[in-house]
Amino acid sequence: MTELPRLEVSNLTRSFGGRVVVNDVSLTVMPGQVTCLLGPSGCGKSTTLRLIAGVDRPDAGEVRMDGALMAGGSTMVPPEARGTGLIFQDFALFPHLSVSDNVAFGLKGTRTEKRLRVHELLEKVGLARYVDTFPHELSGGEQQRVALARALAPRPKIMLMDEPFSGLDNRLRDGIRDETLAILKEEGTAVLLVTHEPEEAMRMADEIALMRGGRIVQRGAPYNIYNAPADREAAAFFSDINVIEGTVQGALTQTAFGQFLTPGYADGAEVEIVIRPQHLSIDFYRDGQAPAPTPEHGVWAPATVSRARFVGTESIVDFVMEDASTLKATIPNVFLPRPGTTLWIAIRRDRCFVFPAGGKSAQG
Ligand SMILES: Nc1ncnc2c1ncn2[C@@H]1O[C@H](COP(=O)(O)OP(=O)(O)OP(=O)(O)O)[C@@H](O)[C@H]1O
Ligand SMILES: [Mg+2]
User: Fold this and answer.
1) What is the residue with the minimal CA distance to atom 17 of ligand 1?
2) Which residue's C-alpha comes closest to atom 20 of ligand 1?
3) DSSP string across 47-85
4) Residues 162 and 31 placed together within one structural domain of the fold
5) Which atom of ligand 1 is nearest to the CA of 196?
6) What is the pLDDT of residue 362?
7) Boundaries of domain holding 302
8) Model pLDDT, residue 137
9) Which GO CC annotations does the UniProt entry carry (predicted)?
10) Is residue 2 assigned to a domain?
């Protein structure tokens, strides 16, 4: 028998004042899995989460948890009866309650049972010594961990988290993110995490649901979304991209880097060949002799450095091509050629994505 999704959202739709904000959204989260709802500001992520939590009602579509209908048709199970834990961006702790009372807030059971569970969770989040402390005496990161403990305390089957780490500084965030993930995995909780940061999604997610303009444009494992983006915008959401434009002739597109196979496009079709900056290769110009073309790299093209910066783990080099188009390369460690220097560059053929011009989704 196949396992039921812990959370199954089908064709969820919600409009405000005639504007569709959540448009036919479907996603699933299996037990113990982390799904990240990733997308730019205003694309409808929080609204989707609110519909799942039950604090808002969908116009159409269904929300199911372990197969049971929570919202859809005339059914609307109230939020407290859905077995979900919620951490919203402002995670508001109760200021007048101590840390332990905050964590105990949603708990049922005897006083001893509650005390044991609160202690267990505060141990897990590394705050056991703060039981009697009040929220204003804690740092932002510590408050965040109390909020996590509070949300986990009633053993929710599903944890809904809306940008839960956004208030934290970078260093603190990495640690808390990893700790949180470890705790959630240990508890076997299914997690739907909303974020607008691709790096956070890649770090946390088993599956990413990429959202844009109210719709899910692509779903998949981080590796697949990064390496096989659905369209140019999906590619650009994860890193800077280079775009090389061309026109198809006989299923081939001619560029400064040689011919590209572009099957499935009609003669005269405009295409965009997209490549991430880390997939450009660089060679020294020497006496102006181009390196030999290879199947991996195609043809090498001369390019002039316009700017080079070192940013910590890598260097970013901007190039101007002979046709005045520009390209960006990232190179590990320190590589700072002087502006005006000419180099040979090539692009990794297996790392290129071809899309129809105009930024719309792939051929088909
Ligand atoms: N109750 C509401 N009434 C009217 N419009 C709303 C309501 N809630 C959300 N919206 C609109 O829906 C759109 C999506 O909002 P939502 O909060 O879901 O975006 P988001 O993806 O979470 O963005 P962010 O990353 O900035 O938090 C926004 O344009 C917002 O103004
Ligand atoms: Mg939001």
Assistant:
1) 46
2) 42
3) HHHHHHHTSS--SEEEEEETTEEEEETTEE--GGGTTEE
4) yes
5) 25
6) 40
7) 241-356
8) 93
9) ATP-binding cassette (ABC) transporter complex
10) no
| pTM higher than 0.70 | yes
Burial of 317 (0-12, 13-18, 19+ CB in 10 A): buried
Instruction: Assess contact for 160 and 84: CB atoms under 8 A.
Output: yes
**Parts of the chain with a pLDDT under 50:** 361-364
Q: Are residues 139 and 125 in the same domain?
A: yes
Q: Give the position, in ligand 1's atom list, of the atom nearest the Cα of 39.
A: 21
Q: Indicate the residue among 221, 236, 251 that finishes a domain.
A: 236
Q: Which atom of ligand 1 is nearest to the CA of 43?
A: 21
| For ligand 1, atom 27: residue with the closest CA | 41
Q: What is the CA(90)–ligand 2 centre distance, in A?
A: 11
Count of domains for the chain: 2
Q: Which residues line ligand 1 (CB under 6 A)?
A: 16, 21, 39, 41-47, 196
Residue 139 counted as domain residue:
yes
| 301 shares a domain with 167 | no
Q: Are residues 85 and 199 in the same domain?
A: yes
| Same domain assignment for residues 220 and 270 | no
Q: Are 293 and 347 in contact (CB under 8 A)?
A: no
Q: 231-235 long-range CB contacts below 8 Å, 24 or more apart?
A: 231/355, 231/359, 231/360, 231/361, 231/362, 232/272, 232/274, 232/353, 232/355, 232/359, 233/359, 234/210, 235/274, 235/276, 235/353
Residues 200-228: tens digit of each pLDDT: 999 999 999 999 999 999 999 999 999 99
Supply the residue whose CA is at minimum distance from atom 12 of ligand 1.
21
Compute, in angstroms, the gap from residue 146 CA to the centroid of ligand 1. 27
Ligand 1 pocket mutation pick from 15, 16, 237 by most atoms within 8 angstroms of CB = 16
In angstroms, rounded to a whole number, what is the distance separating the alpha carbons of residues 308 and 127? Answer: 45
Residue 221 shares a structural domain with residue 284: no
Let me know if residue 361 belongs to a domain: no
Q: Which atom of ligand 1 is nearest to the CA of 89?
A: 27
Q: What is the Cα–Cα distance from 284 to 309, expressed in whole angstroms?
A: 18
pLDDT score at 361: 45
Distance from the alpha carbon of residue 193 to the mean position of ligand 1, in angstroms = 16
